[in-house]
């Protein structure tokens, strides 16, 4: 028995020795013989994937800010894993994310999102191209413009049991109008408001209504603590962990739900009665989305009652169905669109509004411009006299302010990594071999001092430069570097909806309220890169006093 135990110990020792020798061999190969060996970077990063894991998970460094430090030390291109490069020179961005690029995404990064069947997580280019083509018409500028009323007050039909049931309509002061009413009520109660969470609630309701034909009514939740949004925010640091521990991600995604409610009345609503219940208590959002998906697949005729096309209409179109698991596709697209919609709109709007309120001269100029097309806001509903999107789009300072807000606060903070094709690539004049993972973050484009003078300064006027002596204006030069929604064939399909919401939201907040900061400082807007910005401070809190003019 003792000899058997010795044999086991010996096997363990030999296994450990073998692992150490393999790790040393791999490190030597990565440093001296790897195809990317000529690119600079920390020695540990060039030798092993463990360096990036250690910095992001254990030291909790913000990846995009860590990259900024590395570029200051190593130059325009830095090797951050044995097979991974990050670029910071301006031209590199268009080399990687250009319309002719047909590069696949980096599997390690995109599988960490946990929505493998959604468009954002489709790795091969051809699969993503097909899905984007299916959804393209839903997010076109024309489609968004025609449905801009969804961001304001409207009459909305509910989902039906069948196409034969008479439609039931309810009047909802939702989205921006609903937000205005909630903020006015809070002011009457002597409360300031967390505008980041308020804007996220509004954006979530608008996006779910636009994409799925029914709203989560997040704005009805006290203190803007909609359970889905709270859960999303709490999950952000987990994206970093899941990226480095894929097995942990798979285990987490397949764990059973230990918190299902069986006694709450809202969870016993029959699927065919209402595919997405809106409970007053914290919802089990994943279960509700699954219920909605199951309902539209089992009863596709109920989609005929919707006043506009939804994501479900497009993905269930027989001509568009090229996927084997429609339920998984609809479920993952629903979750991904809800996640993206809240951050893309709310985060930059909060960031921009803070800088507007911190600059009285800019605030006054913006308000004067908005009042020139919205002179009267006295009505039962503030949107009754509000200008249409097409009018707001003509306001140069408002447009410039939204651009500057998107420049300063990226919707996606992390670099969106791609894999170079079999023929290799030339990026910023540097030859990169086939199969290398490469990327450049939007943050590094928008904060490049060679492109944007004094990049840490919020300055909408940088977008308003006029041409001189028949030369292209500085604005024209800057527009080619405005990449808030990425560029190329895999850019964000929902950018038109985001622009629509930001135009309406920002103009309404400035026209409707006399806004005053509630002890908010720049440090309250500090964020960490967790794929999207994870705000670690207090957020923007403001008093929302109804405007007297």
Overall description:
The protein is α+β, with helices and mostly antiparallel strands and 549 residues long. The protein has two domains: 2-58, no CATH class; 119-546, Orthogonal Bundle (Cytochrome p450). The chain is built from 21 helices and 14 strands. Strand 8 (425-427) and strand 9 (430-432) form a beta hairpin. Helix 9 runs antiparallel to helix 10. It is globular. The model is unreliable at 154-174 and 257-283 (pLDDT under 50).
List the helices and strands and how they pair.
Blueprint: H1 2-32, H2 43-47, H3 50-58, H4 63-74, E1 77-81, E2 84-87, H5 90-96, E3 104-105, H6 107-111, H7 125-135, H8 141-146, E4 154-157, E5 169-172, H9 175-188, E6 193-194, H10 195-212, H11 227-244, H12 246-253, H13 285-298, H14 311-315, H15 326-357, H16 360-373, H17 389-392, H18 396-408, E7 418-419, E8 425-427, E9 430-432, E10 437-439, H19 442-446, H20 474-479, H21 495-512, E11 513-517, E12 527-530, E13 532-535, E14 541-546
Parallel strand pairs: 2-10
Antiparallel strand pairs: 1-2, 3-7, 4-5, 6-14, 7-10, 8-9, 11-14, 12-13
Helix pairs in contact: 9-10, 10-15, 11-12, 13-15, 15-18, 15-21
* Span of the ends, CA to CA: 91 Å
Tell me the fraction of residues in β-strands, as a range: 5-15%
Major sheet: 5 strands, mixed
Count of DSSP-assigned helices: 21
Classify the fold: give the CATH topology of the largest domain: Cytochrome p450
The gyration radius over C-alpha positions equals 25 Å
- Give unreliable regions as ranges: 154-174, 257-283
Number of domains: 2
CATH homologous superfamily of the largest domain?
A: Cytochrome P450
Counting helices, strands and paired strands, the structural category is alpha+beta
Helix % is 40-55%
Main sheet strand line-up: 1-2-10-7-3
